[in-house]
Amino acid sequence: MKTSNSPFPLNAWYAAAYDVEVGRSLLARTICNQKLVLYRQENGAAVALEDACWHRLLPLSMGRLEGDEVVCGYHGLHFNGQGRCTHMPSQETINPAACVRSFPALEKHRFIWIWPGDPALADPALVPDLHWNHDPAWAADGKVIRVACDYRLVIDNLMDLTHETFVHSSSIGNRAVAEAPFVATHGDRTATVTRWMSNIEPPPFWGNQLRAERGYTGLVDRWQIIRFEAPCTVTIDVGVAEAGTGAIPPGGNQGDPALSDRSKGITGRVLNTITPETDKSCHYFWAFARNYNLTEQRLTHQFREGVSGIFREDELVLEAQQRAIDEHPDHEFYNLNIDAGSMWARRLIDGLVAKERPNQGVIPIRRAA
Amino acid sequence: MKTSNSPFPLNAWYAAAYDVEVGRSLLARTICNQKLVLYRQENGAAVALEDACWHRLLPLSMGRLEGDEVVCGYHGLHFNGQGRCTHMPSQETINPAACVRSFPALEKHRFIWIWPGDPALADPALVPDLHWNHDPAWAADGKVIRVACDYRLVIDNLMDLTHETFVHSSSIGNRAVAEAPFVATHGDRTATVTRWMSNIEPPPFWGNQLRAERGYTGLVDRWQIIRFEAPCTVTIDVGVAEAGTGAIPPGGNQGDPALSDRSKGITGRVLNTITPETDKSCHYFWAFARNYNLTEQRLTHQFREGVSGIFREDELVLEAQQRAIDEHPDHEFYNLNIDAGSMWARRLIDGLVAKERPNQGVIPIRRAA
Amino acid sequence: MKTSNSPFPLNAWYAAAYDVEVGRSLLARTICNQKLVLYRQENGAAVALEDACWHRLLPLSMGRLEGDEVVCGYHGLHFNGQGRCTHMPSQETINPAACVRSFPALEKHRFIWIWPGDPALADPALVPDLHWNHDPAWAADGKVIRVACDYRLVIDNLMDLTHETFVHSSSIGNRAVAEAPFVATHGDRTATVTRWMSNIEPPPFWGNQLRAERGYTGLVDRWQIIRFEAPCTVTIDVGVAEAGTGAIPPGGNQGDPALSDRSKGITGRVLNTITPETDKSCHYFWAFARNYNLTEQRLTHQFREGVSGIFREDELVLEAQQRAIDEHPDHEFYNLNIDAGSMWARRLIDGLVAKERPNQGVIPIRRAA
Any idea what DSSP says for residue A348? Predict the structure, then answer.
């Protein structure tokens, strides 16, 4: 375990799996450099244990479930959901020190969340808000992909959507995104980037939706309201409306979103939570939710696969970027105007890390002139 | 070559190959971190040379055999069975220093053995006893597999057969093995674990044998007498007999095996010698020998493939264990009662290593309460 | 970039690609540990830029060409052929420091050459002479292969052709090469090995040529005049003539090649330039040129594929040798008589490196008695 220099706080809830991934079998997954075995007890509650037997370190995930306990696949030691050894082969007395680490785990918004840090601090109220993922007023579906990069590169990617113009030109990107102004704001744990685009050609993805749902084929007003919640969750309010029908609130990027009239538009939410696997890899959980045409399964399927293809384009860029960073270990990065949102996200992350580990080195960032 | 911190003695005979693997061609194999080229001279005697030409280090195994000499595949230098260079291209005079290292080699019990340490100490009488492998009173067959783990993990595995219950439940393991008591004893170079199991259900492998050979389908007495000979050979006397027919000697695990009456049983020997390839990989040579129905080739074939499948289950566990050890370099291991045999084996190995290299670090072992 | 200890000078022209490899798309290639993106401007001139965007390090080769500029595939920054950033997304002002490194590049003898060192020293007159590769009096064709070894091992290989006897016995090697005497001479930037072989059996490759071109099947005089030009180009004048017809100049290896009468022979040039990719890998560019039967495309094809097969034999040897060197980092090499040519080549290379980096460690070479 090399967590001392890691670029993430440990005292946070991290999505470890989609709810359906964890059941009555043993799932091995690494979260924040910690190898875990995940399973559900007979009452359905999720359990997360260190994935290494106390005796000879064999991954417990190579064993089997017996009731609420894991049986090691080498010498048959039993461990309960608290990680305590309850049976050893060929001996009556059990060493009281015999246990593996157990991690706080809970289920919310269709994810199993685990807390890699101090269990005493694991407040369920701190799970980030991704309620759209199971709200009956929304239809949502998504995937998890493993990306071979520092999870913060995914955050950077999501906090600046000008990259859509260059990476995703065939689907959601067009010149308008890179050209439109935006506003970046921030709070104690959140950073927000707001970009309203007025009277533009819709990109293919949205143009197709608006035609299908509203029979509308003209210019649109488009919005992207990106909200980061430290350390690793990003929800994006996205959509388009018929141009000039009041979707853009008075004041535009500076205005009050509550004054937006979206009655002539369609709205989606891109839900993202990116869990560090190691310092240089992550599990990227995402879903796309819409609040219209909820029961059309074809649409849900099409969105899931469409977004999946778009994120595949990001994956290629992000992994290449990680390799380049590894080859330039001392590189000092300069920020452009477009990096304002990710810069705030990074500062919030750095603050959480510094609070836990005061001597944690933080990559210096300079701003381009 | 990184032998200084290696977890094995150099002054020992190690099986380098099955007899049939070495012939009139060049075989490359690494033994104890030493790359070797093996071949037979025209008189059949096995030769083991350092596998790197004196001139430009090209592996000699990429060259060819000419009479009793190896010809390098790059510039044609010749080396004889003692490793001395006998020909250089385009020059008359041969540098007297031009030679590669030659290792003591001999053939016994169907293996080619080599001695990686001081040739002056290479006493043929020290080859471990594996005579069942070519004794006409036994029918034996086996294989060699490469396992990506420290050879001592294989020794640990063989010295405690309670793992059969958990790793090999479909063939040779059942609950009886993990529950039966055992006795561990040791000598200067050997350690023995004896486990007699009385009046039990036979596991599938042995039940099938006893039915086929004796027409017997009831409960059995079963035995496992595991004998380790330092540094890396383990022979296991295994078998079952009709329950209560005198196979278990008076005194059971403490009794005298010579007083066992196996006339209503069947006996096998599991022969194992595990040669370090590197610090973290090994060549696992094994054979299974029986002393009944010797000429039934179908049975020999079936045993070889059956045991091969069982050892494949071990291989998965052992390689996972090695990876886990690599990830926890400072882990301190605790021993259970079942580890008594392997603990003695490790001590004998550590003793041999310490004698050769007094400053060799030895992994500390603590015993669980 | 780890060039400080690299075994090659930076102030030299290195072949980066065959002319046909570089066009109106982006080619990624690493030269002397430097990742480059290569392309042609609209006027056909080759450009070589550092392959990492100034902003977030994404390889520019993952972007696209727009006119004479590269557009980064992540955020759309533009860089011109001098490496200067000419456009940034969402901002008017461009940071004047925003640029990537540009390398001197030119096209000559069918290769694109780049100069990784000080641009002020990049004198076009220093491109090595490989004119046979596009001279209408010669028919030439070749390939580029990546070899996983220090480029100097390829130089060693070419400077001593006795290896033909052992590595290429089925094509160009026979006993005569290893047995024939040779002479090695050197200048400031060049080293030459001359070997005339009188009245010998031709090896298959040349025997076949002489029969086809001249209807001659007897003994031959054969020559190999190997010329190294520092740091990494080797041209070899090769051929055979009917024995005793005056091809061998008076004085043989010591004689004046200008006095050779090759009218009863056939001549080829093996052109080689070996560009370091990293310290332990290289791009090996080669071509074979002949000055007879120029328009016979079948012959060009056959030579290219024949030589390609021969060099594949070298590749196996060279990569095995590199692995062996990596396993013996402190090995001290001894030289044989046959190493005279490569020893001079190495000294010339070491001299160039030492001039650039006075403290560069140089591998000591001792000569065998």
Answer: H
Q: Are B265 and B239 in contact (CB under 8 A)?
A: yes
Q: How far is A41 from chain B (nearest CA, A)?
A: 21
A84 touches chain B (CB under 8 A): no
Greater model confidence, B257 or C282 = C282
Distances in Å between the Cα of A272 and the Cα atoms of A10, A15, A67, A158, A367 are 19, 10, 34, 9, 27
CB contact under 8 A, C95 and A368: yes
Partners of residue C34 on adjacent β-strands: C31
ipTM (interface pTM): 0.89
Q: Given C166, C333, C337, which is nearest B76 (Cβ)?
A: C166
Which of the residues A35, A58, A87, A100 would you substitute to probe the B interface, choosing the one with the greatest number of B C-beta atoms within 10 Å? A58
Residue written as token pair 């004794």: B135
- Asked if the Cβ–Cβ distance from C338 to B91 is below 8 Å, we say yes
Residues A59 and B367: their CA atoms lie apart, in Å, by: 21
Rg (CA), chain B: 23
DSSP helix/strand/coil, C304: helix
- The distance of C225 to chain B (nearest Cα, Å) reads 17
**Residue range C215-239: mean pLDDT, rounded:** 96
Tallying the residues shown for chain B, one arrives at 369
Strands (E), chain B: 14-18, 27-31, 34-40, 46-50, 64-66, 69-71, 78-79, 85-87, 102-103, 105-108, 111-114, 139-147, 183-186, 190-200, 220-229, 233-242, 265-278, 281-290, 333-335, 365-367
| Maximum CA extent, chain B | 78
- Residue C187 backbone phi and psi in degrees, to 5: -125, -155
One-letter amino acid identity for C190? Answer: T
Distance CA A313, CA A311 (A): 5
* A chain contacts of residue B336, beta-carbon cutoff 8 Å: 55, 75, 88-91
Q: Where are the beta strands (DSSP E) in C279-337?
A: 281-290, 333-335
Contact B89 C338 (CB under 8 A): yes
- Tokens found for residue C265: 């022979």
The rounded distance, in Å, linking the Cα atoms of A275 and A12 is: 10
| Whether C285 contacts C18, CB under 8 Å | yes
SS3 for B368? coil
> According to DSSP H, which parts of chain B are helical?
151-159, 163-167, 175-179, 204-214, 297-327, 340-356
Q: How far is CA A169 from the centre of its chain?
A: 23
Report the residue from B58, B73, B97 with minimal CB separation from C324: B58
Residue A76 amino acid letter = G
Please list, residue by residue across B250-265, b when 16 or more beta carbons sit within 10 angstroms of its beta carbon and e when fewer do.
eebbeeeeeebebebb
Tokens (6 digits) for A35: 């190898």
Q: What are C320-365's pLDDT values in tens digits? A: 999 999 999 889 898 999 999 999 999 999 999 999 976 544 444 4
For A265-301, the DSSP string reads EEEEEEEEEEEEEETTEEEEEEEEEESSSTT-HHHHH
Full pLDDT tens readout for chain B, 369 residues: 333 457 999 999 999 999 999 999 999 999 999 999 999 999 999 999 999 999 999 999 999 999 999 999 999 999 999 999 999 988 889 988 999 999 999 999 999 999 999 999 999 999 999 999 999 999 999 999 999 999 999 999 999 988 888 888 777 777 777 788 899 999 999 999 999 999 999 988 899 989 999 999 999 999 999 999 999 999 999 999 999 999 999 999 999 988 999 999 999 999 999 999 999 999 999 999 999 999 999 999 989 998 999 999 999 999 999 999 999 988 989 899 999 999 999 999 999 999 997 654 444 444 444
Instruction: Please tell me the distance in Å from A197's CA to the nearest CA on chain B.
Output: 50
The residue with tokens 């392959």 is C51
Contact A58, B321 (CB under 8 A): yes
